[in-house]
Amino acid sequence: MLRGLYLASTGMLVQEMRQDVISNNLANATTGGFKSAVATVRSFPEMLLQRLEKNQAIPIGPFSPGVMVDNIYTNTEPGPLTETGHATDLALVQPGVGVSPAFFVVRTPGGEAYTRNGQFQVDPGGWLVTAEGYPVQGQNGDIYVGTTDFKVDAGGRILVNGQVVDQLRVVTFANPALLQRQGDTLFTAPGAQALPAANFQVKQGWLEESNVDLARELVDMLAVLRSYEANQKVIQTEDQTLAKSVNEVGSLR
Amino acid sequence: MMIGALWRGASGMRAQQVQVDSLANDIANVNTTGYKQVRVGFSDLVYRPVMEAGMPVEQPQAPGSTVSLGTGVKVASIVKDFSQGALVQTGEPLNLAIQGEGFFAVVNGAGERFLTRDGNFHRDADGNVVNDGGYYLAIPAGNNQDVPLNLPPEAENINVAADGTITATVNGQVQPLGQIYLYTVSNPAGLEAVGDNLYRLTPACGQLFYGAPGTAGNSETTGTPGPVLGTLRSGYLEAANVDLAATMTRMVVAQRAYELNSRTIRVADEMWSLANNLRR
Question: Where are the domains of chain B?
């Protein structure tokens, strides 16, 4: 009986965490280059229940003590592209399905970070930076453009007045699952090596939108709510059963 | 945890509110000469690890990776979009539109310099070329000094060429009367919009360049060359660059995103209520 209570409560906790992930996805439904997350759920490792009979343990079958969040997995699929016409807006396009995502490299105080959000700016010093002011990295480090009137070709070379000033560093990862989110639409890759990306195209004047699938998130949110409710009902039922056995069974009237 | 979902929803609603506010301002200025629309950029907030006691989360297999939850969204940037607006013909020779990069510099009575794309100029009683607010069109005189462009009252048939040279008929003779210069900065996003179609120069603008229209400007302080400036069209004004169709589309998207976030708040609230009602 008490086990059932705890079991249902793990269900409620897991649904809460799923709701946290969904609420973050929906809050970022219009954040450029945002990658949605999914909380994957699985049961705790099963254990074998045993019954003691005549000083002998007799197995009666497996039992799971509930569910837990296995991982919060980042969906790195590309988001849709929109045309903006701004020279400082860059998007990465990779042909093929299921390819390891390519990223722009930016320099932050905490080291290198990676982003798919190509809404860049030119800062007062003439450097190409992100909205937060982190310098975008080229093959020679920070990229000096000096003006918002520059061209970027499909290979990522940056041309100011027809002269190549630098080439964007575009990297990919053998195992994108090792990427960690940092906020500011940045990822870091502790313990993973950034490899130069091949087979990508830079599109100037385009932006990658958030890859949040609104219909799916809404359906998930309803499923979360109802599943939460069902677990609550289980707890209430268990509680009522417990009340019966404590207060009514064997009571004297 | 539920409170976390509430705050995420609230952060999303607040971000979309900023988006709607800026779109409303763009639409209000759809007929403002030289107005430039703004773009709101969002980014996600910090992620925090969820490896806490009592949390049913398994340690991930991959070393160094952590399971983390995002905490919402913020407005990362609000940037003026300085792209070209459409040109509207007025026929007035001192109505000037810039095709390409650059700004007019105007100076107020206190000697402060502002940049503007609004080329609705006229001659005042003294013959100085001024804008609607009476600020005079600045002509660089060296040493960061500006002088007003003065056209004698007897000048007729004023003509402003694409390269900024002004000619007029004075006492029956066609004479050159001066030159209009354009200004630009290395970082237009650093300009502070102060209303009246004017932008104030701030340290965030970087270097200030000026030159004749159609030429590469030179830095006012170091003399280094800057971007190529646009050319002038006399008899035209630049309309606002607000794209109404795109703005309305963004408005619909912002409204729906606002609704979605309010729905996450409703659902989180409902879940909280369910938890509160475990024991009725």
Answer: 1-7+20-30+242-279, 86-239
Contacts of A28 in chain B (CB under 8 A): 12, 42, 44, 70, 72-73
Residue A65 belongs to a domain: yes
- Answer yes or no: is A252 within a domain: no
Quote ipTM for the complex.
0.85
Is A180 found in the same domain as A90?
yes
Spatial separation of the C-alpha atoms in residues A105 and A90, rounded to whole Å: 13
- A186, part of any domain: yes
Annotate B24-51 with b (16+ C-beta within 10 A) or e (fewer).
eebeebeebbbbbbbbbbbbbbebeebe
Q: Which residue has the tokens 């900023």?
A: B18
A253 falls within a domain = no
CA atoms within 13 Å, Cβ hemisphere of B97:
21
- On whether any CB of chain B is under 8 Å from the CB of A129, the answer is no
From A169's Cα to the closest Cα of chain B, the distance in A is: 22
Domain span at residue A168? 81-208
Residues A95 and A202 reside in one and the same domain = yes
* Same domain assignment for residues A203 and A227: no
Return the amino acid letter for B254: A
Q: Give me the tens of pLDDT residue by residue for chain B, a chain 280 residues long.
A: 568 899 999 999 999 999 999 999 999 999 999 999 999 999 999 988 876 555 556 655 555 567 888 999 999 989 888 889 999 999 899 999 999 989 999 999 888 999 999 999 998 888 889 998 899 998 887 777 788 888 888 888 888 999 999 998 888 888 888 899 999 988 888 889 898 899 999 988 888 888 999 988 888 777 778 788 999 999 999 999 999 999 999 999 999 999 999 999 999 999 999 999 988 6
Interhelix angle B2-28/A2-27, rounded to 10 degrees, is 20
Considering only CB atoms, B64 lies closest to which of A26, A183, A191, namely: A191
Interface test with B, best of A13, A24, A35 (most B CBs within 10 A): A24
